[in-house]
Amino acid sequence: MKAQTRDRSRIALLAASGSLVIIILLLAGFMSIAGAQQEPEKAPFEGTLVADAPGAMTMEVAPVNLDALGPEWRPIFAETFEAASWEQKWDVNLDFSGAGYKWGTRDVPNSLDPASKSVAWAIGGGTIGSTLDPLNRSYPSGVQSWLVAGPFDLSSADDALVNLDLFYEASGGDPFTVSLSEDRIQFTPQLTVNKNVNKGDGQWEQRSVSLSAFAGKPQIWVAFTFTSTNSAQKFGALMDNVSVWVEGEPGTYLPVISYGFTPTPIPVTPTATPPPSGDYDKNFTNNIDGWEARRWTDGTSYDLSHDGGSDDGRQGFLNLLVNTKDSHYVIASPLVAGPEPPYNIETKVKLRSDRNTGDQYGIIFGGNYTGGPCPATDFSTCFTHYYELRIRFFYDSGLDKDKMEFKLKRIDSHDSNNNNSGPDLIEWTRLSSKLVDENGFIEWDVNVDSDGKIKIAANDEPVGSAKDTKYIDNLYFGVIVRTEDEPNAEAKYDYFKIEGY
Questions:
Q1: pTM of the model
Q2: Residue from 151, 154, 143, 155 nearest 181 by CA
């Protein structure tokens, strides 16, 4: 049943206090890495606000606790305004009035999100706005700045919503609006905030807007507009953590922006996390079928390929090269679920690049997958959390030798540049050259018990253990290569297998 025939209170019932949790994916980095097609030219913008349209100013609902949304909900767009390339995710970012002011970003604290470092300011861009200091806390008259995302394909959605953090402080008659359009010309306000109607109170607030009336539509644009007829010693409008969510059986949702009038649908797997597929064994002798890059640091250049050559009596390898220096990584995975704990992962790996650079390779396990494309453009569908076994190579000047060490991390989150972070379960631990040959293949085993005991072995010798139960029931796995101070970290994997016991 389409959402326009359903009670919009379905969303309101989901509302609860909570912090906004959104994993960000930045389109510019993804396109440069994945070799996307050249961006089409933007069509001229002709948007107008239809202020007296039916349903105007009626679609706001109580702030939605995004953490409480069920698995039938998924984000199709997210923006945190942290990346320098943030404008590439938006269809329009312009000064509609010609007054020299448009949306731009500034380093202003967001009390709802202590991790936020940058927010959008309705007058922070443009020929004049880019020179303004937000500490002066003032905006001019004659501004009409638009920020438009879309089109989004809601044809298979049962329901949808927009969520954002908003700081509004303006004089009467100077509104901030969230508007919807089906043609990118006439925009109907769904939320209007001004001094007299639905007023903001000069502090950060979470706002949620129902898109129920637009579910089932093949293309929708969302506009965020600030208009001023007066000048005031006030901020105007600040915005952060914008996201669009849809509910229902996955269909052809568009999680990125298309500059034409017709969305480019992408297929979405109609099921959530598949059931465990059990044991997995891939020797890479003839191919690396199924293995693809699933996550990476923004701006990373990499090459994932099959190496059909021989080395140390072995034939055929998965080869992963990361070209970009300064702690850039790439995770590759076949995106199949392994067995439930207890299980053991085994692989043989050789570092292919110089060993005195701090280059790292590793094993990923305990990863999650929610269904749909992986990677999604905002990296929200897979490997948002996992365990990472890291192996690092470096030159020890005291011993005048190349050495290696390992650590085990639990990855709980990723920042705006998609760098991962989480606690160390095993600190950096040096391995003896009597145990492993730093220049040769090393067999690594990761044993995961059902009680959360994680045991690490190198060449069949135990080297460390930890206990953590947070993600052991997540069954997706893979490999990782990351750079340190120098580019071109490269490793080859002889085989990869995971077996339950």
A1: 0.49
A2: 151
